[in-house]
Amino acid sequence: MNDFPTGVAMAIDPLVTRVLAPNPSPFSYTGTQTYLVGTTELAVIDPGPDEPEHLDALIAAIAGRKVIAILCTHTHRDHSPAAAPLKALTGAPIIGCAPLTLRDDGPRADAAFDTSYSPDRVLTDGESLAGPGWTLTAVATPGHTSNHLCFALPESGALFTGDHVMGWSTTVVSPPDGDMADFMASLDKLMQRDDRIYFPAHGEPVEKPRRFVRGLIGHRKQREGQILRLLKAEPRAVPDLVERMYVGLDPRLMGAAGRSVLAHLIELRARGVVAEDGDAWRVAA
Ligand SMILES: [Zn+2]
Questions:
Q1: Residue 150, helix vs strand vs coil
Q2: Which chain residues have CB less than 5 Å from ligand 1, an ion?
Q3: Distance 184 CA to ligand 1 centre (A)
Q4: CATH numbers and ranges of domains, the chain
């Protein structure tokens, strides 16, 4: 991981340049990857964390060209906080996902949200933005967060997948904003598309997208099956499920695994398959 090219502009497609932010972590892998789209006039996707070092790297990569738009896939703090300072530096409007108003029922999991995000224009599903030689179309993909968008670049056959599909790990779905039913529907939505390649915010490009997404859907169904088998044996609380399901997991990721297990349980409860019993969950009678 140490030789990962943080801050270096890497051309990965005739229309796409990638700049890695200096924010590696167990959750963000080597860090957030900001994408520059275009050649003469640019869009910037997921400007990343508000770190001077990263903003300097972006300004160097932009190299004096006009920035038409700053787009954000969603408003987790490793994705959108640099939007405002980059807007101040380039004059470009912030366009893309909606700001997020969190529901306040249930436990709050908003520590990682960027509440200062303030877009000039929100793109709804299917809306496009164009520059010289490129078009970016919003593909609404709620699940990881309720406001998550992917952006399609048809000139390259590419889809910028944000955190909906990542190149290094499965995506965390954390209730109440994260929603497993929405997430699965958003994976199905990608299966209906014909993208050539995915550029995720974390991890390497995904070169066989449909096969990859089919694998993710299978993985979630496998986790659901595991939960049901464990609950059929006896009622269990989330930490007990996580311990049995994620043997050998990095302890720093246990909390995140618990959020995804909870997201499965909430989805199963909505279908009448499981019920909550105090701290524990059981199969519905
Ligand atoms: Zn995220």
A1: strand
A2: 76, 163
A3: 16
A4: 10-217 (3.60.15.10), 233-283 (1.10.10)
